[in-house]
Amino acid sequence: MKLKSAIITSAVFAAVSAFSAQAADSIKLGFIDPLSGPFAATGTGGLKQLEYAADVLVNEKGGVLGGRKFEVVPYDNKISPKESLVQLKRAIGEGVRYIFQGNSSGVANALTDAIKKHNRRNPDDRVLFLNYSAVDPALTNEKCNYWHFRFDANADMKMNAMTDVIKTNDNIKSVYIIGQDYSFGKAVAAAAVKFLKEKRPDITIVGNELHPIGKVKDFTPYATKIRASGADAVITGNWGADMVGLGKAIGETGLDVPIFTYYAANDGITKTIGASGKDKIRLVHEGVLNPVSTDAYKAYHEGFKAKNPDKDITQYRIANAVQMLAAAMEKAGSDKPIDVAAALEGMEFTSLHGEKLMMRASDHQLIQPIHISVHTDENIVFDADNSGFGLVVENTIAAADTELPTTCKMKRPN
């Protein structure tokens, strides 16, 4: 009896120890984005937001799968696709199975190809790619990949929303398009030409140019050219340091026309543009800052600012990605990427803003409401860059109206 009792006690102890070890074992979230160089402000801002979301929305609420916590592991890719692949390999070697990335579609294209190849060669060691901001339409069209999920609206969806607003403004007769010379910048330009032709064939495109990404020190010649063109509006997909430079130069020229942008806010951009952009800069985005959407989001935002007074929540979709990942793990009862991917497909979710989201199963593109906001210092609850200026929503496109067809022909694992 003593031997039997000892065996039972030993077995129970082993089971409890195994459960405790699993509960204590963190789930690593790899963050591959620029943490140095000209786009470091964007990357470090995203990292702070991911860390905060993981802690506040998951870890402080008991974690997932019986108490396991999310651990954010940063990797500096220096905005280089090549360096991103080096960091991906390093992350996989360190036990990371969930990769967060968003800044630069060039990087995202490299990562999605590499992850697809890795998963094919290593079916027992798969990785999931959670793309929170790289919006090249190809990623959920011809390059769609079962292991890739996008939590931001793609460039075409955003341009469709933006041009819905432009088409109602009869004062806009000509448009100047300017962007960065890589996949995303090219996608923005192509979408602008396509949707303007469909919705306002009377509008003349008086300029359509691309500039080197991250290399232009003075945008004055570009801003001068835009003003000389006589354009009634400007469209740009610039982000990071390139948006800071372009926004500053446009402000200094005194150009007084609507400027429709994808990323003209935060990370020093709002502060740089300041009063010169009031009632001129428009931003297409998800999530609502002003007016305040919900008490839950208000508390979340205020908590972030208390912890990171020099940063802003610039990419609300990071919180969506973290919450949906946690929900998928709970639904699957597993942290294995193949199980989590299946749970994410088709998932419906309500964001902190109270908005209904849906991860479209056919291409892994999140469907959500899209907003157009104006840069102003009036009716601001949450400003940007501690500048007194921020974004106030002017137009909202319902989630169902943001959907566009996809050419994705996704191959699913056996």
Overview of this structure, please?
This protein is of the alpha/beta class and 414 residues long. The chain folds into two domains: 10-153 and 295-368, Rossmann fold; 156-285 and 369-401, Response regulator (Rossmann fold), CATH 3.40.50. It is 41% helix and 19% strand. The protein has 13 helices and 15 strands. It has helices spanning 2-24, 40-58, 81-93, 105-121, 155-166, 183-199, 220-229, 241-253, 269-273, 295-307, 317-332, 337-344, 399-402; strands at residues 27-33, 70-76, 98-101, 128-131, 148-150, 174-180, 204-211, 233-236, 259-261, 281-285, 348-350, 356-360, 365-367, 370-376, 390-397. The strands form three sheets. Strands 7-6-8-9-10-14-15 form a seven-stranded mixed beta sheet. The protein has a five-stranded parallel beta sheet with strand order 2-1-3-4-5, with helices on both faces. A three-stranded antiparallel beta sheet has the order 11-12-13. Helix 9 links the parallel strand 9 and strand 10 (281-285). Helix 3 (81-93) runs parallel beside helix 4. The protein starts with a helix and ends in a 12-residue tail after the last helix. The model is unreliable at 1-23 (pLDDT under 50).
